[in-house]
Amino acid sequence: MAMLVLDSQVEDRLREERERSGADRFDEVWDGVYVMSPLANNEHQGLASGISAVLQIVLNWGELGEVFAGVNVSDREDDWDHNYRCPDIAVYLKGTTSRDCGTHWLGGPDLAVEVASKGDRSREKLDFYARVSTRELLLVDRDPWGLELYRLADGVLKLVGTSRPGEGGPLRAESLPLDFGLVAGGPRPRVEVARRDGGESWRI
């Protein structure tokens, strides 16, 4: 259930408590509205950490680009904290047209990864990510399990493929020489990341 807080004192206290505890790490501001995201559970954090580690290896630990496990992405340089999103993972390749402003990135990543959690609004971020020219977005859904790959075309992030355990082929990224897929496993399906040159692959 969503909650709208109009009492400024309650709002200040909630934000201070979340900042003090570190629970605000992935909080966002959507056009001036402060959005408190649910704290990621262990599975969510494990997926994000694992995928991030693989991407670091693929990009040779910064030589080909930068990988961020949580970063502020905005559509403005000044007053950026009035409108920003925090993808679970963001990849900015060398030569990106987006700009590192220190506190945040002005412009979208080459690849964003969102791990969906119950009650979050991952899919509602797609329009924003498109506006800031995010090239591709991989969404990891866990209820039911599935991968969705979106690609920027004509100013819109369009769904170009899905993967479910035992259904569909690998999802071929354009921003990186990688294929993503879901393979059956226990106690949950595994996210498979494979180099397209036939080299290494990882299951997370």
Describe this structure in words.
Residues 30-167 form the Putative restriction endonuclease domain. This is Putative restriction endonuclease domain-containing protein. InterPro entries: Nuclease_put_TT1808, Restrct_endonuc-II-like, Uma2. It comes from Tautonia plasticadhaerens. This protein is α+β, with helices and mostly antiparallel strands and 204 residues long. The chain has a single domain, classed as Alpha-Beta Complex (tt1808, chain A). The chain contains three helices and 16 strands. It has helices at 8-21, 42-58, 126-131; strands at residues 28-30, 33-35, 65-68, 73-74, 84-85, 89-93, 99-100, 105-106, 111-115, 136-142, 145-153, 156-163, 171-172, 178-183, 190-195, 201-203. The protein has a six-stranded mixed beta sheet with strand order 3-6-9-10-11-12. Strands 5-4-8-7 form a four-stranded mixed beta sheet, with no helix packed on it. Strands 13-14-15-16 form a four-stranded antiparallel beta sheet, covered by helices on one side. The longest helix is centred in the N-terminal third of the chain and has 17 residues, at 42-58. The mean pLDDT is 91.
